[in-house]
Amino acid sequence: MEELWIVIGVIGILLLIALFCYLQNNAISHTRINIKTNKLKNGLRIVHLSDLHSKIFSRNRLFREVKKENPDFIFFTGDVADRYKSDEKAFDAVNELSKLIEIAPVIAVSGNHEYGRLNREELFSYMEKRGIKLLRKERLQLEHKEDLIIVFGLDEVGWPHKTEELLNAFSNENGYKILLSHFPERFSQVYSKYDIDLTLSGHAHGGQFILPFIGGLYSPGQGIHPHYYRGLYEIGENKLVVSRGLGNSRFPLRLFNYPDIVTIEINIKNK
């Protein structure tokens, strides 16, 4: 009888561990950030998503959670598909993202994982076909009420010399300027040197594990204990917001780092 209770106890512990791991990777959390500017006459609310990695959330949860935020625009900063997962899952992930167009315009850039796929151009074409505006070293002019918003999306595999010329031209534009870049580690060395109001990035996966008193443990491109792994960072007037992302790549587990929907409220400074 004692052995039976031990077995039941072990099974119970294993089930609790399995439930904990499931929730860590599937329960969607909300990060809310407030930014002030003197370049807008009206408030602006945007949702920032990143790093879906071919993941599909059950019961249409991603759509329902984004809809609650009532954004004016939705920005996606790369890795909708995972290079190590099937073509079917990649196109399903594009469909998952494209559902959000019913809520607000979806504007996206690619990440390193799309570029790791042999069918990347087919995938990019499918994103456009599904109504996602994909920026590949392109600018997009948005009008919101009385405000002009200029968005520039980087297509960054490699680092072509021309990219910095494009950034310089972008920084000289009028309006509120938003840069979409998959890679946050370039903020301090490159992006913050230009007159860009807000940079949105992903790629860091929130450091994968977020440990008490330590923070993010590891991210691609930054290594152990990454600096740019979640939330808001500022250098002078330049601001960076890093999404912790929604999915995983080859390493299948997040810890204290739920899939992340970032909502950014951009308000007028004098209000």
Note down, in words, how this protein is organized.
The protein has 271 residues and is an alpha/beta fold. It has a single domain, classed as Purple Acid Phosphatase, chain A, domain 2. It has helices spanning 2-26, 61-69, 87-98, 112-115, 120-129, 162-171; strands at 29-37, 44-49, 73-77, 106-109, 133-134, 138-144, 147-153, 176-180, 198-201, 210-211, 215-216, 218-219, 223-224, 231-235, 238-242, 260-268. A hairpin with a 3-residue loop joins strand 10 (210-211) and strand 11. The radius of gyration is 20 Å and the shape is globular.
Which architecture would the CATH scheme give at its second level? 4-Layer Sandwich
- At the fourth level of CATH, the homologous superfamily is Metallo-dependent phosphatases
* End-to-end Cα distance: 69 Å
Q: What gross morphology would you assign?
A: globular
How many helices in DSSP terms? 6
Q: What is the CATH topology descriptor?
A: Purple Acid Phosphatase, chain A, domain 2
* Helical fraction: 25-40%
**What's the pLDDT, averaged over the residues?**
92
- Lateral strand order in the biggest sheet: 1-16-2-3-4-5
Query: What composes the largest sheet?
Result: 6 strands, mixed
- Round the Cα radius of gyration to an integer and report it: 20 Å
The domain tally reads 1
CATH C-level: Alpha Beta
SSE-based structural type = alpha/beta
